[in-house]
Design brief:
The radius of gyration is 14 Å and the shape is globular. The longest helix is centred in the middle third of the chain and has 11 residues, at about 50-60. Helices cover about 25% and strands about 25% of the residues. The protein has four helices and five strands; from the N terminus they run αββαβαββα. The N and C termini lie far apart (about 40 Å). The protein has a five-stranded mixed beta sheet with strand order 2-1-3-4-5. By secondary structure, it is an alpha+beta fold. It has helices at about 1-10, 50-60, 85-95, 115-120; strands at about 25-30, 35-40, 70-75, 100-105, 110-115. A hairpin with a 4-residue loop joins strand 1 and strand 2 (about 35-40). The chain binds tetrahydrodeoxyuridine (THU). Tetrahydrodeoxyuridine (THU) binds near residues 16, 82 and 84.
């Protein structure tokens, strides 16, 4: 699966000298482009950024829009498919279109396909 391979490539860019837990995220776009994100840690641990948010920040920073997104795939070397943290779920809820296919994966080949509403029901949204 192309999306999984792309997420694995993204994982290679993880900067995780503290946790040694590498995470990769790949956002597939309608034009066939993949936007990669990796977790980037810092000696001031609280500043660390997850792979999911790295990918979404990169996407918007490069001028792509919500409407360009087809799918998002996240991978880590874990016993079960990696599950986004609460902060990333809030971010994903705002940036990903409704019903975007989100695949959670690990290196053993286990996958879980989900949606942003499944990951974060009753999400906080600002309507003003
Ligand atoms: N991490 C992610 O990048 N994404 C997740 O879905 C879970 C956790 C990162 C944050 C930190 O760099 C490391 O994994 C260990 O928590």
């Amino acid at each position: 699966m192309k999306q999984i391979e792309q997420a694995k490539l993204a994982m290679q860019n993880s900067y995780s000298p503290y946790s040694h837990f590498k995470v990769g995220a790949a956002i597939e776009l309608k034009d066939g482009t993949y936007i990669h994100g990796a977790n980037i840690e810092n000696a001031s641990f609280g500043l660390s950024i997850c792979a999911e948010r790295s990918a979404m920040v990169s996407l918007l920073s490069q001028g792509y829009k919500k409407e360009d997104i087809v799918s998002m795939t996240i991978i880590a070397d874990d016993s079960i498919p990696v599950s986004p943290c609460g902060a990333c779920r809030q971010f994903m809820h705002e940036i990903l279109p409704k019903d975007t296919k989100i695949t959670l994966a690990n290196l053993k080949g286990d996958t879980k396909v989900t949606t942003k509403d499944e990951l974060l029901p009753y999400a906080f949204v600002l309507d003003k």
